[in-house]
Amino acid sequence: MLWSDPENEPPEELREMQEKLRRLGLLMAVAMLLAMLVLGLR
């Protein structure tokens, strides 16, 4: 690790991708919960 190395900051595209994946994961979790509720109510 050199003092001239850049900061350990992920690039902008990677950050956007992580944000999208996080949102997608949250959406999937909510969808699974809803599906379980619907199936459980039947």
Automatic annotation (TrEMBL):
The keyword Membrane applies. It comes from the Bacteria. Keywords: Membrane, Transmembrane, Transmembrane helix. The chain crosses the membrane at residues 24-41. The keyword Transmembrane helix applies. This is Morphogenic membrane protein MmpB. It comes from Streptomyces thermocoprophilus. The gene is mmpB.
